[in-house]
Design goal:
The structure is a homotetramer of 212-residue chains. Helix content of chain A is 71%, strand content 0%. Chain A is built from 10 helices and no strands. At the A-B interface, α8, α9 and α10 of A face α7, α8, α9 and α10 of B. Chain B binds a DNA duplex (21 and 21 nucleotides) through α1 and α3.
Chain lengths: 212, 212, 212, 212
DNA sequence: AATGAATGAGATTTCATTCAT
DNA sequence: CATGAATGAAATCTCATTCAT
């Protein structure tokens, strides 16, 4: 009310930052809890407590509890896609190893977000479609294109590129899903490298055209 | 009073059948709903309605709602393990194809049970441990032994058998998990066969010792 | 329908006995349970189980659960009143001792009935009025008359007979209530005698006219 | 943020008052209802209605219905023990009269609490043990010591002090229990005085060493 | 914006009673 | 008469959301 024309922009910038910080605190708290016991078993009271604010304050940042879930699910920015968007991703063995390594590199702080998205996708249609499938399809498409290219280049056997992509994704899934399910801890960088190498070797020697 | 000794068994048999029918009706209704929207989002009212009985009747068969969940999770009898217990499972290409085919053969009626177990494992510790991990470990162990045998026989490359088992499971997971997540429909028998064949080919040509 | 005029009476007699036996079994089971955990915390299922019959069978003998309670409360036939109705009850020290002794003589099998009546009187108006107060008032009246007689005979001090009666009842209550509350075990016959003697001595030396 | 150090205490004080008022309102409402119809026959709906709040609000103050009961039972602060702790309690006739008088002085507002504790003790083990018996034993012990002292001083007859204590408690019970049971109204101050006087006279003339 | 007590709709669970067998 | 599964009304309890401060 006292603010004049000059204050606004500054206020707004600050305000934006403050709002962003608030949202972040909430999302981080929520992600951890969602990852542990699931969305439905987490109360807004718990989220507020972990975010160190009052229950009512949550509603200054989100419309409702589900809004927090959707934000958490969307936030989860795994480096998977980045890794796969690299046009060199399947260029040669080392590139593939590097790709798997990077794709498995989910930071401790990102894990709850990824877990939440993965878990709640089986229960929430919006998350399944807008957050989960969209990414999977994107990855699938990139992989398919890469593989088609390698086939055209005479490096891979002339298989169904779509199925090949699915195969690669499966193998990657076998590496990362246990951690997302909470059934296994996150692999250390060393474990990631060694896993990636072995898996790529096994994959390649099947997928690569054999010279005999 | 005189014919008690004879009546009891008959009464019990009838009673057993009636109870089994009741339990089964409830579990079947519950499994479908759990698979669709998750345990926490399914109300006892919905279960009762779908099982065509009064809400209170549920409690003549189960102690509480979670009791239904546990029964559903335990019930899920996928043919996976049976398929894998076949000592011939990895004998040759055809045996492997057949194994994958059988392991993917989840009937429409069993699917909700399997889905429930798969989904709720990430939220319910008892299910995760007693129902989910137990089976996974069993499968893993069987595969590892099979693979170690093939390596000893000079058929497979001398890789880490444990990692090989994980690889096979990953590939199988890539085939079946989408259906369990509700992200894809169950594959038809034909699709199963074709999927199994391609996947085995890709797997084998990596795992098989290359001559020349 | 087949029965003729001669059968009826015999049938009826047998029937009466059978019915009486059934009621008794139920009441005995119920009294025990009511005494342990109270009427409201006892389920018909428990009563039926303890009476070794099916739940539905209860309703062949009683209109409803409360009917069982009322019957139990009414049944409780403590020897208190009988003891007090003896015209000699307060005649001399020995008679008084004997009276207290007899009045405390609640058999193990009667205890649950007495306990139930005592406990539920504080919650159930019908029991309070029709089963509890009626008896208390009767006892009070008898005692008052006895005491008035002793005063007239110059044996007791010229006190308010009503208050004297209340005093005697209080002392008796102090002896028996703990057992009814479940706070103390039933006194053995020896304990009863010794208690009665001491209590009477204490009572008498206050109530008896002192000769100086 | 600046004035936090100062605000907190004030906030807390206000909060304490508000909470205390809430708890008190609930306990008062509950005590009245429990005293009338018993714990098991009182619904949370009734309690909330009488406390003039929504049913759910109860659970902001207590974990569950039983929590309310326990709080009510604990609250009941009868002046009995205070009266008995007076070292002069049995000093002479007037002291005894005064003691009984004070011990009977249960205010109208405290009565439901006392009634609840008395009634529910027969059904709830925690209340019986932690709330009821503890106090009875305390009273008993104090009385016993007083009496032993009077005996040593040659004022009372050389009786068993424990039994004497029980006797005093019985007489007191006879005075107060009817009110606790709901079988009689609370005595007015005048009635209390007159009752105490008569009862003490009767007690004393038995318990007091007779000169003659 | 922040607070957190109050709300009330809705979920789970209990259990006396009925009724078909 | 006996049975016990089915019923459904009612009780307890949870928790996302609101709102006065």
């Amino acid at each position: 009310m006292v603010s004049n024309a000059m204050d606004r922009p500054r206020f707004n910038a600050r305000r934006q930052r403050r709002i962003a910080r608030g949202r972040q605190r909430i999302m981080s708290a929520a992600a951890t809890l969602f990852a542990q016991t699931g969305f439905a078993n987490t109360t807004t009271k718990e989220i507020a407590h972990r975010a160190d604010m009052a229950e009512g304050t949550l509603y200054n940042y989100f419309d409702n509890k589900r809004g927090i879930l959707l934000a958490v699910a969307k936030e989860a920015e795994t480096p998977m896609i980045a890794a796969l968007q690299d046009p060199q991703a399947l260029e040669d063995r080392d590139a593939m190893v590097s790709m798997f390594e990077k794709a498995m590199d989910i930071s401790e702080s990102q894990l709850p977000f990824a877990r939440t998205r993965f878990s709640e996708a089986s229960v929430d249609d919006v998350i399944l479609q807008e957050s989960f499938m969209v990414r999977l399809r994107k990855i699938h498409q990139l992989l398919e294109e890469h593989i088609a290219g390698r086939i055209a280049a005479g490096v891979f056997r002339p298989i169904d590129a779509a199925l090949g992509a699915r195969m690669v994704m499966s193998v990657f899934g076998g590496l990362i899903v246990p951690a997302l399910r909470g059934a296994a801890p996150l692999p250390s960088p060393e474990e990631r490298h060694s896993l990636a190498e072995t898996v790529v070797d096994l994959l390649l020697d099947g997928i690569r055209l054999r010279d005999s």
